[in-house]
Amino acid sequence: MLFAALLVPPPAATGEDPPIDRSGKKQHGTASFYHPRFAHKKTASGEPLDPEKKTAASKTLPLGTRAEVTNTENGKSTEVIVNDRGPYAKDRIIDVTPKAAEDLGMKEQGTAKVEVKPVEIPPPPASQH
Predict the structure, then answer these.
(1) Are 121 and 22 in contact (CB under 8 A)?
(2) pLDDT value of position 108
(3) CB 88 within 8 A of CB 11
(4) How far apart are CA 58 and CA 69, in angstroms?
(5) Could you read off the pLDDT of 11-40 as tens digits, one per residue?
(6) DSSP letters along 64-103, please?
């Protein structure tokens, strides 16, 4: 089994992070999944990573976003909740948990071409209104 999850640390903050996207537009690109060594580590939302839940990391979708991820190579899809930042590999748009990767049929390959469609985007924090 190939684990294509992020194995490099996040880059130092440079102020060049992509802006948070609340547009609801679909994204297309490559997904990977978290390596088991990240299990139970704290995510950007503060909760520990649970490999059995269907959560994901996105650089641009707001934390708490519910999104439908579809593997465009086999048509399988699953819904995830964005609770982390990443992936930090330049060619990836989303990292999903092993459970979500299983639902998407991508665990053997490690990566897959996907469409990410936001289903529900939480409102911005009060300080950003």
Answers:
(1) yes
(2) 92
(3) yes
(4) 12
(5) 444 445 678 999 999 999 999 999 889 999
(6) T-EEEEEETTT--EEEEEEEE----STTEEEEE-HHHHHH
The pLDDT score that the predictor gives to residue 8 is 38
Domain spans of the chain, in order of start: 35-122
Q: In whole angstroms, give the CA distance from residue 10 to residue 28.
A: 22
pLDDT of 90: 85
pTM: 0.84
Which residue positions in the chain have pLDDT lower than 50?
A: 1-15
Tokens of 111: 């990566």
Question: For residues 118, 121, 124 and 129, what is the CA-based torsion angle, rounded to 10 degrees?
Answer: 90
CATH of 35-122, one of 3.40.50.1820, 2.40.40.10, 3.20.20.220, 3.40.1190.20: 2.40.40.10
Instruction: Map residue 50 onto helix, strand or coil.
Output: coil
**Closest to 71 (Cα-Cα) out of 109, 115, 41, 102:** 115
- Could you tell me the two tokens for 110? 């490690």
Q: Hey, is 104 helix, strand or coil?
A: helix
